[in-house]
Each structure stands twice: as structure tokens, then as C-alpha cells.
Amino acid sequence: MKVIGIDLGTANILIYMRGKGIILREPSVVAYNTSKGSLVSIGEEAKNMVGKTPGHVVAVRPMRDGVIADYKVTEEILSYFVKKSKAKVGPLRPTIFVCIPYGITKVESRAVEEAAINAGARAAYLVEEPIAAAIGAGLDIMEPQGNMIVDIGGGTTEVAVMSLGGIVVSCSIRAAGDKMDEAIITYLKKKYSMIIGERTAEKIKMTIGSAMKSADAGCKAETMVIRGLDQVSGLPHSLTISSDEIAEAISEQVQTIVDSVKNTLELTPPELAADVAENGIYLSGGGAMLKNLDTLLYKETGIKSIVASNPLDCVANGLGSIVEESAKFRNLKFYSNDD
Questions:
Q1: Sign of torsion, CA 45 58 101 265?
Q2: Global pTM?
Q3: pLDDT tens-digit readout, 181-202
Q4: 219-232 in b/e burial notation, b at 16+ Cβ within 10 A?
């Protein structure tokens, strides 16, 4: 029987298969023909179409803020990736573990579960994202000690303190990668009357994005030449921007993440908080790669912050550990239609 873990992210989908590791990694984007109501492309090919499609073709993400925004399209994208991963062979259907944000509603979690079942799963089990991220970051959450993970994805940031295989204190906020991209678009439009798309904003964030201005971080500011449309003339236009400007643009989202970490620490029982102070705060997800975020968190909390190795893969690798070492994690709480 094949067992797979699916990191069903707002920005990307990763699939881990027992015995093989991560076998698939593609953007969770779908392009479909609105006039015919048919799919045009899925994944990387669809992402390359964002902002470049004719009027009758729309490229969208079926996941928003970590939950299903379009059930039908999510089911189709899951079916496509399960088929592409060759997890389903003939009548044999795989068991699927899928990550969900902490604290989503029963209706939202059931929608994820049903989408997995209809995509070809024999059984579907839901794993809370902070749990998978922490395991993937190398934290031993089954021990009686406090571990803190801050998982910054595309749609949500999950902050959690765990002990003995469970979440003790946690919060999920919708200040993450996508909101940062939107803030960059708004900043450039307001300050320079320049219009850019989502892909350009994401590239800016990844290239020169910073959680702190250079003077505060004690480093040199970076610059980048970007291209967009001049809002006044409507013509293509080039502009050089700095990392300090991007730090200013995304400051609200970054501060929201910092505040959520501080609030979670305040709610953490003293003994576990002492463990976190000793072990550090671990950062995972694509947002963990934002320059100087670890420095800012240390400055704000006084606790060392460590960016996990391969932060983009933490959730998928955590699911992989659950899939590969089921006996070790047998006491974890999973959610399924049997509950």
C-alpha cells in the first residue's frame, strides 16, 4: 500500500512518498478556460501564465490563506498531482496525509479531507501544519519539553509551542508571503505610480526583501532594477529600488508576525517558555528566508532564532517522517472522517 504526504500550500504543493522522499514540487496554480469551463494547465506551466493570459483564460490559486477557496478546482489539482506522482496504481488507492493550518473550522478541514478522498485516497488523515513543520525542522516534539516553530507560508503564518506531541499554545495569522507581495505592489503604486504584477513582487521580495532596514540590521542596503507600467503614461518603465524601501513596504506584515510570536510566548506556561528560551525559536516555510527576520526576532524577544535547513521543505519532510516512522508518532492526534 502506498502512503503519501501532501503539503497542500497556498503557494506550492509538495508530495512525499514513503520510501522515495519528496517526489513532486509544483506551484498550486490552475489555469482554466472560462468560456469552456475546462482546465488549460496545472502547476508550473499555469504559474508561468499568471498575468499573461488572454481574456478567456484565468490563472488562479485554488487555495487561499491555507484553506480551500475553490473546492472543485482543488479536487482537480489534487487528482492531477496524485496521478502524476503515480501513487494510485490500478484499483489500489493510497493513504494520504494532508497538512492543514492550526485552528481552521470543521467545515474547512472536512473540505480538505473530501477533496483528498475524491482525488483518489483510500483514507485521508489531516495533520496540523505546525506539527509537521516542527518535525521537518528537526525538533523532537514527542519529548516533554517546549519547542517553538514559526512556519511562514504563502497564505498563513503558524506560530506554535509544542510538547509531548501536542500543541500547547498556537496562533494562525493571515500575514505571510502573499500579503507581503501585495504590500510591495501597493507601495510601488503609491510612491512611484508604478504598476507591477504578483510575480514581479514575489521576485523583489525574494531578491532584496528584508525584515529590517540596513542601518538597524548593521548591513549594506541592496538595490534592484525592476520594470513595470507607469500609471500616468501607461508605458513600460524601469526603476531602481532598495532593500530599505522593501523593508518599509512589508513592515506591517513583519511586525504582525513578530507580535504573534511575542503574544504566543506570553501565553506559554513558564516551564515550556524556559525551554524555548534555551532551545531557540525555529523558523520554517518560504517566509523564513526573508533576510534579517531571525535578527529582528532575536532583537524583539531576546531569544535566538534559527532558520531551519531547507525551510521550504519542512512541512513535507515532517509529513515524510510521520509516514516513514509511524510507530514513533503513533500518539500524535490526526483528524479524519472517522473522528
A1: positive
A2: 0.90
A3: 999 999 999 999 999 998 899 9
A4: eebbebebebbeee
